[in-house]
Amino acid sequence: MRAQFVMSEIGVGLRRNLTMTFAVIISVALSLALFGGSLLMRDQVSKMKGYWYDKVNVSIYLCNKSDAEDNSESGSKACAKGAVTPEQKQQIETDLKKMDLVETVHYESSDEAYKHYKERFGHTALASVITPDQMPDSFRVKLKQPEKYKVITTAFAGRDGVQSVADQHTELDNLFQMLGYLNWAALGIMLIMLIVALLLIVNTVRVSAFSRRRETGIMRLVGASSFYIQVPFIMEAAFAGLIGAVFACGMLGAGQYFVIDHGASLRTKMELINFIGWDSVLTKLPLVLVIGVLMPSMAAFIALRKYLKV
Length: 310
What we know:
- Helix content is 70%, strand content 8%.
- It has helices at 2-16, 18-55, 65-74, 86-98, 110-121, 150-156, 169-211, 213-221, 226-261, 266-269, 278-307, and strands at residues 58-62, 102-108, 138-143, 162-167.
- It has eleven helices and four strands.
């Protein structure tokens, strides 16, 4: 009988405050969708880091004859002592292979570098005037821990025979930093929406408690406990939050299906990016549902302690 009474009171409260309940549902749905989206963005950035950092090598470019001549004219200290000698080249390779951080070392001659350059940029005007002797020899270094690429730069930059140490991690770091800023922006918007949702929940509970002050007064007179009186209001807020969380889960699932997976999606258009899968999405949905129920319930409980005084 008590359960039936509580359910009937929930229905009455939802009908009386239908517009505000709808606003609560929408605000909760948007804030939780942004929350889930930010978590998925974090997973995507981590997956991209693991994928790209594992593929990017550090390149140590060696001095050639033209480098030495150009740098002597410009006053640059790089390659000031001339082209790399066979002894210097052997010493660099030996030092690389001694490092625990290094997984593999591949030597690329100037002829190989010229061939690769022609394959990639043969259609450009500059490719017609480039000659093999202008391409530097280099060592392509694959690391066991790619995030520690700066160790190679520190150890070999400025050495005799070394023109420069280049890696693509810097560009990747800039990309991931930008994605991190976007993620923080999404979290900021989510926080604003969350505050709006909490204010709406508190206001809805306040209006609902005021409109039913006669019923709650009678219940208090016949001996009903404070918790028993508060349950319908808390359940109303929890029910609205649950609906909003379900909508948020639907938006996250729709985003994964339509934006990333289905048809002419990002996965087919951007094959170089290793996108997250449904496993990442499905692990976030229970958390979204739990927060969607607990957040409005706690807000309603706190609000009732102040406004439900009869």
